[in-house]
Amino acid sequence: MSDISFELARNSLNEFAKTIEDCLVGSLPRPDGMEAQVIEAMRYALMAGGKRLRPFLVMQSASLFDVDLKLARRVAVAVEYIHTYSLIHDDLPAMDDDDMRRGKPSVHRQFDEATAILAGDALLTNAFEILADERTHEDAHVRCELITALAKAAGAIGMVGGQMIDLKAENQNLHEKQIKRMQQMKTGALIVFSCEAGAILAKVKDERRKALIGYAGDIGLAFQIIDDLLDVESSSDDIGKTAGKDARAGKATLVSLMGVKEAKQAAEAVIDDAINQLKLFDAKADILRSLALFVLHRAH
Question: Which numeric CATH code is attached to 7-297?
């Protein structure tokens, strides 16, 4: 285990979360009529809080290759738009059916189901509008690579596909390999894109890019294990959403398969692997090393 403290990442994340919010809101379309409600719902969802982990990973991966932070910030916004859309839809009655997100009413409770669906749709499509813009990168090939990679991460072989497996797997006995695949798709794919984005922006295709992909895959798996542990061990007030839902819904998780103790040990092992993936990088990757520990020790 690394001797770097997770507090380095926690403090950096807290500072970053404050600075990215203006960019998130500033990139929203401006209403000009009766469509204002859907944009208000988009803003509500974006400003509900959150760790901003995925956009943070974009910025940190970009900094490893000295990418212009203005370019990286646009990709970071696009990633957070995709993540926020997924949360809006995940909370809908037809999906995980949760009335609370980040300690506040879910979008469909604050507004209505139709508005929530449309707000999620708009965030999804706006993300690709941002990536397609010349301001994201002057090279059209880089923009196309970003769009393709994010579309795969968010689509049927990524986040959406993982969510489908998650819904279909309720009250079924999945083995460990199946659960890990589901989690790599549902949670890990977008995290992998977030780390790879820096290399895409820098046009890097060597072993460093592969190392970042490996690191992100480990982080994504550990993140989901800890998420499932928090669902079992924490209260709704602590995690900002309804606790204990996974067990009641009969969801397939590594916690339900292994038990709490072994799941914690599995998460620790995966985090060690994640840190080892960064051996190609110098001290510029210390925040990413610290972030691995933050994922392991997070309380919500």
Answer: 1.10.600.10
Q: Give the residue extent of every domain in the chain.
A: 7-297
**Is pLDDT of 127 > 80?**
yes
Residue carrying structure tokens 């139709």 = 114
Close Cβ partners of 41 (under 8 Å, ≥ 6 residues apart): 107, 110, 111, 115, 116, 118, 119
At 149, is the pLDDT very low, low, confident or very high (cuts 50, 70, 90)? Answer: very high
- The torsion angle over the Cα atoms of residues 19, 21, 24 and 28, rounded to 10 degrees, is -130
| Residue 240: exposure state from Cβ atoms within 10 A (0-12, 13-18, ≥19) | middle
pTM: 0.92
Q: List the alpha helices (DSSP H) in the chain.
A: 7-26, 36-46, 53-64, 69-90, 107-110, 113-132, 140-154, 159-168, 176-183, 189-202, 207-233, 236-239, 245-249, 254-258, 260-277, 286-297
